[in-house]
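Researcher: Please predict.
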Amino acid sequence: MAYDADVIVIGAGLAGLAATAELVDAGRKVILLEQEPEQSMGGQAFWSFGGLFFVDSPEQRRLRIRDSHALALQDWMGTAAFDRPEDHWPRKWAEAYVDFAAGEKRAWLHGQGMRFFPVVGWAERGGYDATGHGNSVPRFHITWGTGPGVIEPFVRRVRAGVARGLVELKFRHRVTGLARSAGAVDTVTGEVLEPSDVERGKASTRTVTGAFEYRAQAVIVTSGGIGGNHELVRANWPERLGTPPERMVAGVPAHVDGKLLGIAEKAGARLINRDRMWHYTEGLHNWNPVWDNHGIRILPGPSSLWLDARGRRLPVPLFPGFDTLGTLEHIMRTGYDHTWFVLDQKIIGKEFALSGSEQNPDLTGKSVRDVIGRARADVPGPVKAFMDNGADFVVEKDLGALVRGMNALAGEPLIDEGALRREIVARDREIVNPFTKDLQVTAIRGARRFIGDRLIRTAAPHRILDPKAGPLIAVRLNILTRKTLGGLETDLSSRVLTEGGDALAGVYAAGEAAGFGGGGVHGYRSLEGTFLGGCLFSGRTAGRAAAKAVG
């Protein structure tokens, strides 16, 4: 029986596009299968802030950031904390990825036309010792054009492959099975779904209109993770993170359901580290949702006072932006699944950014004028829209009214005004000197020594209860599902492995389906605060390896 293509790629997200682009460059014929409509091409990367992890970049050097491969590898390994026998390949992938980030990654992307915002951000600051979790220096590079700017070169390369007759795009094709003949997995079967003209990100229909079966010499799985399937998230929730939350907002649409991981596993693939996951603690209900239960993440500066559901301050070093999973673990042991930021307008105007291409129209639209306008505004437009319309915001002139609003939003009187006032007044007393015993205030002053934070990310230290800085603001923070850190185990050629450690003949995996490489390149935590780089690196690797194998 003849082959329909050299390679079948399952999933038209960033990893699938990167793999397909590399196959096109090698002259291979590809069928790209995607269950969603064509308008959703690029997957979740389209909605991203466009953050990329570079090491010792020109942007860093211009800001006098001294970074190095050795420092980045120290940070990565301290963050990942690999400690399992199955971490052999994830560790190898981590070493290779840091090499890539410190080497050709930026030049490779720059050569395809991508450009980067000159101010480097600082994700996952850590707050422990030098060998522990966190970035020692800022490494979060925002793509000019955000998520759409990240996917554009790869969409362009794939469509060029279509024009050359090398790529067939098969949207509304949902894979339900992988099968083998002659010892290798070479057959992909599934259902054809009815056409859908829904907007990108909206739920498409699941009405089946037919079936398909395609054969190729190799199959690359780039189907994503489980973040849209909250039942599966809870089922895999690790004991170390406490009780799974009853209530979560969705950082990805419901079709990110993990079903293809089970299909691959049934075909003989090994799925590892399924209890490792990455969910954010600063989620908001989107007042203008794209998908059901749509959550948006706050990218906070370091100044907001972070309180648990009862109004108690979170312990050191669980400050905004320092340790996502450490904070999540603490929250889930409090008996509640929400927390609060308490701040003022001066802080929100300087420090709040919202993750997502649609929440950053200035950067997404590549408008220098609008970026300057955002920097000059008291509160950026997208943030102001949440203040005015968001279900999680309380804005008041005095603390008593703020607390009453917080308790009303929570549905029970969990926060005592007197106790919270004492906490804030005590913190405000620490502001009057350039030195303090309050480590969050120390962190704020330390952040402002970096010019990028001082310019656009960290407010000058001041008293939260100063009327001139008001009004006061409380933000209810929800658990926001995001990424699967485990996945299909792969070697350094992206070949999927079996339980016995052998390659599952004909099958490759990349992106979130492969834990962004090896079945879990991030280990327990994501140092990057972004997952685009892992999709690009593993997708490129899978595409090149499959192209060579079928050549």
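Model: The chain has 18 helices and 20 strands.
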